[in-house]
Design brief:
This protein is an alpha/beta fold and 470 residues long. It contains 16 helices and 18 strands. The strands form three sheets. Strands 1, 2, 3, 4, 5, 15, 16, 17 and 18 form a nine-stranded mixed beta sheet that branches. A five-stranded parallel beta sheet has the order 9-8-7-6-14. It has a four-stranded parallel beta sheet with strand order 10-11-12-13. The protein is globular and about 70 Å long.
Length: 470
């Protein structure tokens, strides 16, 4: 039985009492936390010792909403694009054009960056799934298995074709970039029965693989391209397989204009809201919608930085938290953010909401850190296993080097994590007890320098092939 002792650090437990232990230690046995407490109270003869050297030992970070493959588009386009312009002129044509090998390169780059940022779990809400064969899906899932990271794969589907008005809007939007090889408006649309049966088949094939680190969720992409039956079927599958379901919701103003029901009302009426649902974005919602989310225990992934880049606005996260809605933080698209760095994002989100509300008391540092840890775990239905350093939970742990000018002095470790940390201080990462990062070096995905060269070359070829021009 393998034991690892992480010691000589400040342990930020994120347990129910939000206990912080100075000169603390965490004992890991196989894939589980066996002891947490002052270093001098833990007796062990470990196989491996990780010396935090006075830094911080924290729960592995949970990224509640991400997109992986379009990391290769980082910096490839003019930044003055709204949601639909970016989605239909940049992201979708490129993602649809990618080969399985290109998806695999993107996944390796993404996981390398995420692990180096302290991420041990992420939820991928895939929006460009080509269901005629699983080659792209399998290419990414195989990388996640090799990386050793804990992943939720949201298997995106669209079972409704865009109506005539929306098709006309897309045509007008795509006229901006005639050089781009645009995907046909119906390229991703499949019938409801096929969408649900293929999702179920994927769940049965891959859910629980990678020693339990891989999860599969049904994922209706957006309201505009999903039928009521699609939403209902997704929630039914989530119940049947004891998983969750995720969708993008109320991101842009255009999605909520001139409608009799808000998106949240509609989802409530068709039975998609509930404890098994995680909604990404929820920017364009009102007080009534927030109450509906709270009443149904529907979770939300706040994608702050990407929403700022697309100028979609501020999600009412403060009101959500005041009403008891569980909110996790997502880094969303790596070509909008432009990083996979939750600590950097939560620092920006915490400060920005204070400024937006003109109230320095909103979204305090503890609530902000919760969004990346224990509330992030609640957002994905895994709070019994993840999100805090407690005996019996999975050994998903990150160690930060705090011997930095920008983290000195740091009398309050939580304050330092949220307001000072840049996300580059992570030295060691364990997921399910396995060491993924050691001395800032990713241990599971080969030579990082070679990967960066391959990713840059792959990205150049992809952008040229699709016809994207700055």
């Amino acid at each position: 039985m393998t034991e690892t002792l992480l010691t000589n650090g400040t342990v930020v437990t994120q347990n129910e009492g939000r206990e912080v232990i100075s000169d603390g230690a965490v004992l890991v046995r196989e894939d589980t936390i066996a002891a947490v407490g002052p270093a001098n109270s833990i007796e062990a003869d470990p196989d491996r010792v990780v010396d935090a050297e006075g830094g911080m030992i924290i729960p592995g970070l949970i990224d509640a909403h991400v997109h992986v493959s379009d990391i290769l588009l980082r910096g490839a386009f003019d930044p003055d694009r709204g949601l639909y312009d970016w989605l239909y002129n940049i992201k979708r044509p490129s993602s649809v054009a990618m080969t399985p090998d290109e998806h695999a390169v993107a996944a390796r780059l993404y996981c390398t960056e995420a692990i180096r940022a302290g991420v041990t779990t992420f939820v991928e809400a895939d929006t460009e799934v080509l269901w005629e064969d699983w080659a792209e899906i399998e290419a990414k899932l195989d990388v996640y298995d090799r990386a050793g990271v804990r992943n939720v794969y949201g298997a995106g589907f669209a079972d409704v074709s865009p109506d005539e008005a929306f098709a006309k809007l897309l045509s007008d939007i795509q006229a901006r970039d005639p050089s781009v090889d645009h995907a046909h408006v119906d390229r991703l649309t499949i019938d409801t029965e096929t969408a649900l049966s293929e999702t179920e088949r994927l769940i049965e094939a891959r859910h629980g693989s990678a020693d339990g680190r891989q999860s599969i969720w049904p994922s209706p992409i957006v309201l505009e391209t999903t039928s009521a039956e699609g939403f209902q079927g997704a929630y039914r599958l989530a119940e049947e397989y004891d998983v969750m379901t995720t969708a993008h919701m109320s991101e842009a103003e255009a999605q909520e204009q001139e409608v009799a029901l808000s998106s949240i009302e509609y989802l409530r009426n068709v039975g998609y809201l509930g404890e098994r649902t995680l909604l990404g974005h929820c920017v364009q919602i009102d007080a009534g919608d927030v109450r509906r989310l709270a009443a149904t225990d529907t979770k939300v992934a706040h994608n702050f930085f990407a929403n700022m880049r697309l100028a979609t606005g501020f999600a009412p996260v403060v009101r959500m938290l005041e009403n008891g809605v569980t909110v996790g933080l997502g880094t969303d698209n790596a070509n909008l953010n432009d990083t996979v760095n939750p600590l950097s994002d939560v620092r920006a989100a915490s400060a920005a909401h204070k400024g937006f509300h003109r109230d320095p008391g909103v979204l305090d540092t503890q609530r902000a850190l919760d969004m990346l840890t224990i509330d992030g775990a609640r957002a994905i239905g895994r709070e019994a296993e993840l999100g805090s350093l407690e005996v019996g939970k999975q050994a998903d742990i990150a160690v930060l080097d705090t011997n930095k000018p920008h983290l000195t002095p740091a009398p309050d470790p939580v304050h330092a994590l949220v307001t000072g940390a840049q996300g580059t201080e992570i030295e060691t990462v364990l997921c399910a007890g396995d060491v993924l990062l050691d001395d800032r070096s990713v241990q599971t995905l080969g030579d990082t320098g070679e990967l960066l060269t391959e990713a840059a070359e792959t990205a150049t070829g992809l952008v040229e092939r699709v016809g994207i021009q700055r």
